[in-house]
Design brief:
The chain is of the alpha+beta class. 38% of the residues lie in helices and 21% in strands. It starts with 22 loop residues before the first helix and ends with a helix.
Amino acid sequence: MIKLRLKQLNIDNRIRFKSFLSSNKIRKRFIDYFVKENDHKYIKSSPVVPYNDPTIAFVNAGMCQFKSVLLGQRTLAANCVANSQKCIRVGGKHNDLDIVGSDGYHHTFFEMLGNWSFGHYGKAEACRLAWNLLTSPPFNIPTEQLYCTVFNGDETLNVEADNETLQIWKDIGVNDDHIVMNGANDNFWEMGETGPCGPCTEIHIDYPQSGGKNLIELWNIVFIQYSREKNSMRKLPNYFIDTGMGLERLAMVLQNKTSTYDTDLFSPIFNIIFNACRISKYTGSYDGTSLDTYYRILADHGRMITIALADNMLPSQNHKLRRLIRKSFILAETNFKIQPGYNLMCDITNEVSNSLGNVYPELVKNNEKVKHLMKHEYTIFNKLRMSVSKDWKTVVEECPMLNSFDPYEECTGFVPACNYLIKHNMKNIPAFTLYDAFGLEKKTIGRLAEVMGKPVSWNELHEKLKKLQTKTIKRTKKQSNNYMTGDIPKTDDSFKYEIIRPNNESYLSPALTAKLLAIVDINGNIVIEPDIKEQGDMVSLVLDKTSFYCEAGGQQNDIGIVKTNNGIVFDVTGVDKIEENSVVLHHIKSSDWPILLSEKDLIVQVDSNYRLGLMRAHSSIHMLNSVLNSYLVVTTQSSSCVKKDFMSFTFALFGQKFSPEDALVIEEKVNTIIKSAISVKRTTVTSNDLNQMNVTLLPGEVYPDEVHVIDMYNPVDNSYISREACCGTHVQNTLDVIEFCIVQYKCLSNECTIMAVTGPLCSDARICGQKLLEKSNFVEHLVNSTNLNNISSSKVHLLMDNKNKLKSELKNINQNYIPLNIQIQINKKIFAIERKIQKIIKAKKMQILGDEVKNKCEDSYAVGYVDCDEAYLDDNCYDFENVVHVCGEIPCLFLAYNKENIHVYLRIPKELPEDVKWLKNFWNKFDIKPIKFKNKVQFKATEFKIKQVDKYKALKLIDNVIEDVKKNYFSNITNK
């Protein structure tokens, strides 16, 4: 065991360090002590979003990023490290959420100061390092205030008392009455039911000093020296040291405060809240009824939310985070009277970024992004409030006991779930229905049952969930185990990344000689004797190694050939990897496959041209993603698809606008990168190394132990154009993409999809687009050359047909890609063409209708049937109001019939009284209720449309009405 050289410090512990130590200085002192003075390597904090551990939603302890090391799955280059880790605890085993605000030291977000030894030093050094730091300047904690706890052994675990650590503390100088022996519940650490574990020792402080009655844990030092198996405890050959000390508690002690909330980590946030609300200042009261409780909750949640959002955690992917954000909005608006609530939350975000940004630079870098997400979440939350407020009011009226819930903090299905429970009035709470159909968490279901005083059918929930899980497993296993390849060793597919480029010419995938391990038929059985009738002509080859890329990360698989030593070639139409055993299946279709049974070795050759098309498309996605991240305030990749020289990329918008014109700006930026001849390199790193690199990761994605990183580095300005974790294949220089051309754009309120082509497909797309542009120019010319003098019904039909064909060709562009910029030009032309056609048709209709109406005019009135079907060109609209002026100032009645409808327009002088008797007869003829006249300048008029399928009956009715109006009404008007 290597011993560390520790300086002997002669300190009078009765004299406390008088100067105020800020939290930044405390953190820095901790890091400097281990890194600069005791040869530890500094490892920066990992994001609170775990990217290599699917078992947790948040990083909740300092050891999370070293979990794979502790499990023995990997080693670190450094054998002792130190850091300050961002931690969030809002659920699971370490859940402090419900306690936050009610006491002075629990938080949803905190910083864990820690040091680790991976087989470098042991218990004695770990204890001495901790003790010396706490009791030496500038911390100067008096030794008489420190107490140590030690593991006292556990018979059920078959682990003896940690007498070694007990003696270490005594040797350091800790008095016997300051050493407390505890059992496994307090002083034995376990990662899980099985795996690494070991005793721990803790340093507590008697604070405020009370003779040992007010012990507060400061530092926990874990000795991982065992591995817990199913029925035994195995001693590890080398044990690890894992320590953790909460910065907030240490700051409380060193700043001589009574609560962590009184430290400089929180007091600036309290000032921000007070300056915004001006209600009352924070006083540190814990009576449970004052505003101080809400001060603490809002400040704590504001820190946690800022940290989580800055680390690329999305509220849409984490309900707990979204719930805390909404809770904070409600606190800001209800308790602090700030409208809208996100304004105060953004102010808190600014303060958190200012105070912690020096140690966590991502807070400063992503500050605007965090505030944008906050505002976006508020928009969603506000819409939810407006939509459920009425329903919630009804729910509470029906079941007043539910008033203890805040529906806006719950999931979207909460109010409908409550409605469901009230409507059905069941004896038991149907846990599975609430969980599965309405999306309620188990904790919420339990609270509902408690409030409503009803038992919960937990057994049904667990049984159905188990059945669903079993079905999923069976479905997965059936799909994978359809191939009987269990005893075949995994395929070595590392050769898929080996690409050569002789003399800087085209890319080539080298031929690879591989052993044929098995042939699998379409039923998944390993072929021993060929039977074409039974097995068909489609089989899959299993080789010991391959250079083929299997579909992953959105990229399609390679195609190519396998060749026998005699030169017989078989086309490989696709490849698949069986996840359970990593066996790669090469699919071929040939009735000659039985001859392969006598082959031992095969030559494997990937189609290099097809592979190059995939590489170009995949590299363009990385450039696109990088440009989008710099162009938009906040975005994230939702999905992607890579085909030969074609890519599709869907990204989130978070309330931002993204127009086709924006897409063209992005296209230009991507092409600028392509022309810049940026080198593209692949490096392989561990998942732990990802944390130390500025790499773009997908939120919520779990990465394997070994990760490929694709770098596009610009040496001119010493910056990365793009740096992403990716398992796909890529070109070696951006120039090889040749060109990037967007061919399709789809945008919804919350996400956008861009489809683009690369390489030679770009010129094909431009040719296709130019042809369609020429067609649009022809239609445009045809329309522009049409006027009132040469328009006809047939010509309008010709214009409409050409315009509709143009729209149809533009819509169906999946087979023949067209550049987006040309699509925009054509769409503008189509819009102008449609406007011009409509304008011409309307003008011609008005001309013809006006002529028809004028022909009906007599000296004192105008009455008649207007017959101009052809002029309306299948339009069922008669605009009499705009042409009636040709008749002058006389009463009018015009009737027309078109498309099974009678059109009626009636106008009489405004000063004349309405003939009630005649009008009654008029309405009766049409079998309708009286219609009110609209007052015009000199006239009162009405117009309406009556459905009449039979044209003969319609025309007969029209004649009858015309005869009646001339005889019984208009003649009387003119006589007057």
